[in-house]
Design a protein that fits this description.
Blueprint: H1 10-19, H2 42-51
Helix pairs in contact: 1-2
Domain DUF7684: 1-52
Protein name: DUF7684 domain-containing protein
Organism: Nitrospira lenta
Length: 52
Amino acid sequence: MTTWHESEPMEEVFWFSKNIAFHPTVKLGRTVLVHISSRNKHDELLKAYADA
């Protein structure tokens, strides 16, 4: 399952991922974050996801 949140704050995107997104027939056990950028934001994004 994928979603697109180009114009939304990262906090809202992560909250959506953890609280709203679901597959109707398959239990999703993992979340994969994909961030394509020339700047490494690994630690920042993982912290924001954990805090959501």
